[in-house]
């Protein structure tokens, strides 16, 4: 029996044949799903169209390389395979081979393909044999390094003998250097103040030292700047404790931390010098700018100067680098925060921390407390401790009207807190109940509109609280929420279980991670999001309509400042009109200081000049009769009177003239006090002025007498020491006019009286008496009717309108401007300036007043002679000029006075001072032009040109 041969394990089976299981199932001619005839009509799984395969020998540009050509499958061969019967598997006999032959082992391994240099030329023209690399850079890093290290230096780069280091450590060292950190290659040199390279002549594979030098220099500059900025931060914390510089140092520190964090996070991704350069370039641009900025800011002497420089630098970047501009805007907001915080606390829109500012301290920021010196036209200086606006500590970008309004609002608010602590504006709960917005920078119109909306809500909330307070209802003041969420250590009075739970709670609290500070930090978030972003984060940001930089301070700060000024000024003015009766104080000045009360003028004239009253002078061995006493000026030789005489003669005049008869009390009861405790006093005089006062016949005999008045603290902003000095000047002159009126009336009695002993009165004396009386009455009428009356009436009408607007609650919701205390003070001062101009009391009018004083002195000398003649007394003790000489002097002086007045009538009127810092007054003008009224005086004195006629000169 023949044994069958063993199967050949290395034979290739006929997998292309159908399985025997399909025999009998497939019909003859039926094609299989898997077949070799791909062009059969029965097959629907392929596309019907035929693809034309380009021949290898085709001349087309885009052709298939020969290596990718498919073998030709003809139809005849296919049919031959289909019809030819399958042959049995072919058994291949293999010869025995030596398994230990080295050639057999090598042939058994698959050949490893070597890396080739692929080029586009080789792909397009595969038949063309590849040539050797033309450029040395195409030959690889090893070839380039060999060329650089060749002593003959074929590249002429002088890089032979350089130390070759690994690429990754060197790139890591450069990245650390750009962050200001040392490494094995670079260390910090304290003497040079810069990083230095410890190992000289370094390079990495594939790069020459010249190529690395540019990137090394940039990384070195970046690292040095990082170190310098870090030193600036540390020195600022130690040696410059001002709030603005600390805020700047904090911003720079945040910048350094974020930059180092971003660079450190991308360190593992840096694999080439180009990637490193793409990281270092934006960082260097920012750090180099801040290095220059810090050097400029170090020259500033104050935080306000630093803010001004910072604002100018930020404005310069308006159309520059977008990221750097956004960073500078955030830095400006940070550095401005301390100054703006104090402004908010001063105005009353933010609670004050620590000790509030007061007049006992030196002041803070733009508010300084000092002895304010008020100097009048004659150099008289008076000092008073008060708040002063220090314009040196106001940044240059803050408008003058805004800074003035801030200061005046805070000054008024402190007076309210002192005298009306129960007012809603003075309560701490107002901040939580009304939620006032903060003073901050706003750079877009949307933010500005949102600010205006929040300001309107705050103003309406405060007005509602004020209405509740005025109506007697207590406004709802929400208590300040307790923001302390820490663990409270309270052990007493607790059980063991409670202590255990408390201990567990404390452990849980301590195990919690620290809150992220940078989560709400706008500067950190800005740098994290946009430091390494390609291009601008917002492609259309440059087309956005934003306010001009010159308008940003006004648009950012004015809404809140003006709203707070309206609230404080309205309540301040309402209180001084209702509670503190400012109209009564001003009426008091009109009646007494300006001699606007007829009863007071009559009582004062008799008390000072009437010779028929009982003398208040103390006489030896003579008892007083108990009648009405007076000083009897003009009828006595001893002068000035003693203080006791002044009290006896002037006692009760002010009170009796101010209060009506129905309110006067009997003797022994408490007398009502006048507003401001007004009373008669003695003026401080120089030695020269005292010498003039000793003569009872001189015009200056009553210059020592003055009215003493001290305004209440809440009215001190309106009735200031400067205004009181102006009142004093006017009262001093009007007292002389009052004396001249009395003297002029006495001249008529001395010449034409029944009891006169002057019988042979000359024509010169009669003419002198008539002209003197006409001149005095004309001057008096002009001073009172044209100088004081119209100006004061206009001022009172303005006060009536102001008070009516304040009492009208329907206007409270209106955003119309509100009159501030500073406006009232300015208007009050303008009225007094206008009166002083009419009364020749301005400094430039002193020559005119000097001529007027000489005329009055001449009349006083003539009245003394007339009195002696009327009494029939001898003029033996009189050594002065005669009546004819006095009349001639009088005529000359009057003619000079009239000539000067004619010259003054041709000039323009008085320019009153403009109101300063008035942002709530829409119609504020630079100056108020007053009418020139000197022509009215000329009409009163000589309507027909009497003093200018030639006949008058020869009389």
Question: What does this protein structure show overall?
Answer:
Residues 583-947 form the Gamma tubulin complex component C-terminal domain. Residues 173-502 form the Gamma tubulin complex component protein N-terminal domain. It is found in: Cytoplasm, Cytoskeleton, Microtubule organizing center. This protein is mainly alpha-helical and 955 residues long. Among the domains are: 162-299, no CATH class; 717-953, Four Helix Bundle (Hemerythrin (Met), subunit A) (Up-down Bundle), CATH 1.20.120. It has a three-stranded antiparallel β-sheet. Strands 1-4 form a two-stranded parallel ribbon. A two-stranded antiparallel ribbon has the order 2-3. A hairpin with a 2-residue loop joins β5 and β6. The model is unreliable at 43-56, 73-101, 478-485, 539-543 and 914-928 (pLDDT under 50).
